[in-house]
Amino acid sequence: MRRRRSVNVGALVASPQEVPSRPNIRIAVIGLIFLALFATMVLRLWSLQIIGQKKATAAVDQNVVRVVSIPAPRGEILDRNGRILVGNQVEEQIVLSRYEATVDPGIIPKVAALVGETPTQIKAALNSSQYNVYQPVPVLTGAPITTIQYLDEHRAEFPGVSVQETTVRTYPQGKGCGCVASHLLGYVGPITQKQLQANPKAGYQPSSQVGQTGLEAEYEQSLRGVPGKDELLVNAQNQVVGTLRKTPAQEGDLLVTNIDTNLQEAVQGYLQSVIMADRNTKDPVSGVYPAALDGAAVVEDVQTGAVLAMASYPSYSLNQWVGGISSANYNALTQGCQSALGGCALDNYAIDGLYTPGSTFKLATATAALKAGLVTPGTYVDDTGLFKVPNCNTSLAGGAGAGCQFHDAEASGAGYVNVTKALAISDDYYFYDMGYLFYVNQKQFGPSPIQNMADQYGLDQVTGIDLPGEAQGRVDSQAERQLLHKEAPAAFPTTTWYVGDNLEMAFGQGATVVTPIELANAYATFANGGTRYQPQVAAALVDPSTDKVVKRFTPRVTGHVSIPPVDYSAMLQGFEGAVEYGTAASTFKGVAGFSLSQFQIAGKTGTADTAISSITKGTDEPNAWFVGFGPEPNPKYVVAVVVSQAGYGASAAAPAVMNIFNYLVTNPIGPVQIPTAKTPPSTAPVPFNPPAGATTGG
After folding, report:
1. Domain map (residue ranges) of the chain
2. What mean pLDDT is reported for the chain?
3. pTM of this structure
4. Distances (CA, A) of 614 to 286, 610, 646
């Protein structure tokens, strides 16, 4: 066999000597490669330094610059005369550096001893997320001068401890007691997590102080101002090494209110006085001393809806909240807040207190009866003292177990009365009859004519007052009972509507409840001829740096009640009669320091049974009401006062209203004054005249 020949690679590839030299091509290829690499590098540098310059700069700044928010001084709150109700005060604050506390933990017990706290409290402050990590932590606000002097003299012993200035709220009226219009003004406190989450773009920080109640909360966005910022330089260890720039904070707007400070103090004093008197006066009918746990008073401008004064009892000092309220003070304020009987100091009973209105509700019933044609001003009803429901079946009577018979409370057996006299002497029999006639004539007048009129007066809806937390009134009806039963079957088991229920609703009993601001606004609507205004506390917002009015709050109409002149006159005479010869006549003669010919007052008493007998074992007293307006024929003011479980309205509430009118007679409320550079806000008190019947100012 022939052997296979192997392949010789050398025979296939030429030797170097046989291949011609080509150095230019090699150099060109290498040059192109280097040129491509250089071009890529240039493009990358151009991309980083030109296109990505802003992003890169921001990234570098983020590594070396930390932005810290500077809270703005809150805007002041003024009364209508330019007097400061809520101001600002600069206080010294001792602060501790987190870094120094980390480097030298021994400083913590020293600082604790200096400011009068425990080391545990200081550590809690250092670990709190409330404070920015790049700022020192406040450990004592409002430091006394002796503490600051000691710190200055022993600087070497307290590394990382310094003193800085901060602003806190002050309340200069009432000699700085913090007790003038507490519920209305509200307090400022640390922002909550819920508030932070609800305002993610508002610029709030965990350490922000915000309005929590009252006007402070309602006008938070205007009062808070515009925060400033510190741009701090930090090193790799996150230690602050300098300040890049500062943007100053802008103070919040001035809030000018419709409140008159002197009137406000007078209203608070009269409300407290009448409650103390109620507690110490035995009810001659029941023989018990009324509990008189809480109460409220409202003074409103009839023609505009402006709230001139508002008081709630029990109350508290706003100074307790400055710098954070202590646990002891907070527990004391909340003692009555869990009780079904009332008496919670934190509640503003003027807007969130729900009280059975009693005979003050007859405003709605009388208007409905006259407008519907059920009666005329000349229609008389014979009050025998005991109203018996015709053809009554006790099991179907309703009326909260009242059966088929309803007694007069005050005007027992008054004989023949028309709507004027019925309002003046608060004749229940007359209004029992109205409730009965409306019930048996539903085909003609509909199922809820009284409720519809109460709605026009705003007694079953929030007034829209510019304060947070307003409660909504409720007018009893079958539809309302069905709604309540659906929400809480155990609390509201009955959904039926009997004739007795209609009778009780007609004179303000049953499940009907209203707030003092609702009732005051309803009577203001009647007093001005039928225009319902939204109650308004704020009058204007003013830029403190320019004196420019940012916003002026003008009267806002929310409804109308149309009453024919003849019907209006008949009702007005009844309300005037209540003061001249009716239920409030004896109180007027004993308390008022002026004559009706000088200052004509109209009004209505209310004595309303409460629904807490099961709690008090039948010893509870009625809610006491009085609402007055005047001077007629062109009324300016409406004043409403209620005291829970205090007895008869004429004796337990009317004295406070009469005393408030004593003040208004000699101290008429003037127009709102907007502060300017020439007339800046002031803390000085405004002189006032002694109330009518008094010899000296109070």
Report:
1. 67-257
2. 88
3. 0.85
4. 17, 10, 17
